[in-house]
Amino acid sequence: QVTLKESGPALVKPTQTLTLTCTFSGFSLSTTGMRVNWIRQPPGKALEWLARIDWDDDKLYSTSLKTRLTISKDTSKNQVVLTMTNMDPVDTATYYCARSHGDYVLTAAAFDIWGQGTLVTVSS
Amino acid sequence: DIQMTQSPSSLSASVGDRVTITCRASQSISDYLNWYQQKPGKAPKLLIYAASSLQSGVPSRFSGSGSGTDFALTISSLQPEDFATYYCQQTYSIPFFGPGTTVDMK
Known about the structure:
Distance between the termini of chain B: 36 Å
Mean pLDDT of chain A: 96
Oligomer: heterodimer
Largest sheet of chain B: 7 strands, mixed
Low-confidence stretches of chain B: none
Order of helices and strands of chain B: EEEEEEEEEEE
Mean pLDDT of chain B: 97
Structural class of chain B: mainly beta
Structural class of chain A: mainly beta
């Protein structure tokens, strides 16, 4: 069974750096084609893709947020970490991690398994 | 970035109705288009990938169509558990979600 779970602080202050961890099981990020993505959703608003890391350590970032984001992985721990600098109240959102696969023919790189999400509030 | 739009932004329907949601990409994305369902307080769930392929375990009343820039998600006979928000997503380039379509009860 494939599962992902997000963890991190529920509350951060403006200007602080947010660090979120996605801990997964049921698959390995060393398997060719595997990817883990981060997505967020402000309350009552739409989904916004943030970043992705691939099995070969290739990384991709949202164009609008790339200067603030860093994604990394610890394959031995089955974890992916996302950091976002200079947090602002507009960054208040539920943050999700989700698995995808890079075989576009078979999967179209769709996000097939999602974590439950973690709500992060930015407030002083 | 390739932007996505959806229409309508919301719709009201009754159980048994046929419902169609459309999604348009700002440029051609071939068939790299996926559909998700999200219920309040829950994570999104993959319904359709590659424009028309049904994800395992998803009821056959859901179907997807389209290619290039114009796509559609159809629910052939709306069930009570289908009231939710639906998002399209392109994975042709940097992934991008549409703004969502909320289906509520008439």
